[in-house]
Amino acid sequence: MNHFAADHVGATVIPSPNFGPRAGAREPDMIVLHYTGMPDHEQALSWLCNPDSQVSSHYFIHEDGRIVQLVPESERAWHAGKSCWGGESDVNSASIGIEIANAGHPAGLPEFPTAQVDALIRLCRDCGQRWQIAPERILAHSDVAPIRKLDPGENFPWGRLHAEGVGHWVQPAPVGGGRFFQLGEVGQPIEALQSMLSLYGYDVEINGSFDQRTKGVVEAFQRHFRTERVDGIADISTIDTLHRLLTSLPRYNLA
């Protein structure tokens, strides 16, 4: 594909060869946010357009807010890798991928500039309206690929996005004392925690054992929704925040 019309008004088109058809001609019903994790943002953009990389995304957002579209929204970009959300294991076929120019954890989690966040909000609103994407399906790469991925990281301004009508979020409960669950514990309370995480969409086995997978999923949840402490320990703050997220969804009534 040499060229195509941008789906998002204002986006510059730089076609990537790394894409294919969505399985079953599926329409996207989620948005997955990434950081590039590279200090040279132009090099990151070039890598997404390099056929040798076998990776791409639908959009790339520069630090100054310029938006580049690499793959048409109707096509399947290769951004999520091995991932799963809500039982869907072909996340690439079900999603729009957005790469945000940010060096990420290797660089100590630099801030996301205001112009960049403003552009991301506009883009997410536009894609969400065009494809009728539910707020709770605007996700982090770390949500759909816990343990394997950390982006866009605990410094990402999810609260700011939510205040502008993008994504699902609640004010996290403050970190404090009280009972908590951690690696190695077993029992019904662990099964209940896993069930709540699974209900929200995370790929976790409900086996009543706080295993390494459960710890990684709890860390992913904290990295998105309770960033004050990302330690994989399910404390009262983590569980309360998760419960309030679930009860705020129209499809559940867990109050």
Number of helices, where a helix is a run of at least 4 consecutive DSSP H or I residues: 8
Radius of gyration computed on alpha carbons: 18 Å
Global shape: globular
The helix fraction, in percent, is: 25-40%
The count of strands amounts to 8
Primary descriptors:
255 residues; alpha/beta; six-stranded mixed sheet; two-stranded antiparallel sheet; 8 helices; 31% helix; globular
Walkthrough of the structure:
A 6-stranded mixed beta sheet has the order 1-5-4-7-3-8. A two-stranded antiparallel ribbon has the order 2-6. Strand 4 and strand 5 form a beta hairpin. Helices cover 31% and strands 11% of the residues. It is built from 8 helices and 8 strands; from the N terminus they run E-E-E-H-E-E-E-H-E-H-E-H-H-H-H-H.
Task: Sum this structure up briefly.
With 255 residues, the protein is α/β, with parallel strands linked by helices. It is 31% helix and 11% strand.
Q: What is this structure's SSE topology?
A:
Blueprint: E1 12-13, E2 19-21, E3 30-35, H1 41-48, E4 59-61, E5 67-69, E6 75-77, H2 91-94, E7 95-100, H3 114-131, E8 138-140, H4 141-144, H5 158-163, H6 188-200, H7 212-225, H8 236-247
Parallel strand pairs: 1-5, 3-7, 3-8, 4-7
Antiparallel strand pairs: 2-6, 4-5
